[in-house]
Amino acid sequence: MDDALVVKNTSLKPIVEVAKDLGLSSEDLHLYGPYIAKIPHKFARSLSNSDARLVLVTAMTPTPAGEGKTTVSIGLSMALNRLGVKSVVVLREPSLGPVMGIKGGATGGGHSQVLPAEEINLHFTGDIHAVTSAHNLLSAAIDLALKFGTVELDPLRIVWPRAMDMNDRALRKIVIGLGGRVNGYPREESFIITAASEVMAILCLAKDLDDLKGRLGRIVVGYSRDGTPVTAEHMGVHEAMAVLLKRALDPNLVQTIEHTPALVHGGPFANVAHGTSSLVAIKSGLNLSEVTVVEAGFGADLGAEKFINFVSRVGGFNVNAVVLVASIRALKYHGGKRKESLREEDVEALQKGFQNLLVHHENLKKFNLPVVVALNRFENDTEKEINRFFELCRAHNMRASLVEAWGKGSEGAEELARTVMDVMVTDPDIVRTYEMDEHVTDKLSKIAIELYRASGVDYSDKALRTLKMLEKCGYAHLPVIVAKTQYSLSDDPKKLNVPGVHRITVQDFKVAAGAGFVVAEVGNILLMPGMPKDSNAMKIRMDSEGNIHGLI
Predict the structure, then answer these.
(1) pTM exceeds 0.90, yes or no
(2) In order of start, what are the domains of the chain with their CATH numbers?
């Protein structure tokens, strides 16, 4: 049977009924039609549910198409409910850039989806639009200050770009202010995608409206001529930015195809920011369920590292188990198989690529957390390949489960759910990679050596100059978020599997004072992606009845 047809014909529950299953009343909801609602962020103000457990879903180093973390996360949460364990799945909101670009929708697939998928993948409740507007309000205030001289700001030391929620490579480097003084002063400018905005990171880290306003006010937009940081509060618009984000701070409640509650909120990229949903969504899930399943973006070297070392610390909650998603195609890809031949059976390539999974598993075990490997099955996986995969897992004492949630829904993830419940620890003694008060270079060295398996860290001249500025301004002991390629454990996307002897090179630093971290730019990371030649946008169609085809 056509899975897309199954999904379209699935009967959705009114969202008020889904909310009722969580103990929420209709008065708690701000409705966006019959199947989407926002819940107040007040449900995250304190962790009142002492029995709450959190399962973090991460992955091995992915192929460009992704390995199905979202599908596995949804399937796992549905399977937990199937077993009688009250569960909520917490996911990031899809960005229009990837939706229209190469990856497509981000609501799962087949019989393991969050719904209504089309609305979620498009404008949803307007959160990303609100982030874009707040970001660009600050950009407009900067040029206003330059024109009228209301703030002492060096025009050559402005670090705040503009933002939009679409892939557009032509906007990476531009010139603005042309056409005479009435339009402002000409200067170089750049655009980043909204998911890379510090405003997005702040939205996902703020605990309430006062915290949101404070974080927005601390955003560094540039520097005066004597090197003093100039902030959004100096610009005088941080309160207005918070007003634009007032409703966006509330998490979005939807449902899976089997009516499991899903909180879909926030969308920072894991290769440029911290890569998971909002703290208010995660803590709301913990307060409203027994087991909250949370996805962290890309491989465990990015999303999981940042979640365990940074997000859980800021949020004040534990991780009770980790699910490490793998796929046969990713193993073969890292074992040297060409992308166009990944559908072909190749046990030898699978065995070679297994080293990548093994390193991620070893890294996660360093945090002193129980880890379960989830093999996300794709239709071209052969029994011979699957059997060999589990033989390798047993040889390395790795707990592993086959997941067929795409084709079977919760039934296809029931084995994984049972295994997760079996290994889950109630009071984990997490061993983190660094201490919060260490210098940023010490944090980076530990992450690079312990998790990326590098021999050390090098710094460009530009990075060293910026580092001195960070030290002068008091930012050098903030937590570090590494912006690097998602396609390799190293800083070179071409170095697949487990790179040999390598070093990590920091090209520059960026302070995100409002979010509360320093970004270390490693390798050539584009904050504004480009649209691929054969984009998903070219495949999307709508019929005369308004039915959309090709989006998911």
Answers:
(1) yes
(2) 51-125+252-423 (3.40.50.300), 129-245 (3.30.1510.10), 440-522 (3.10.410.10)
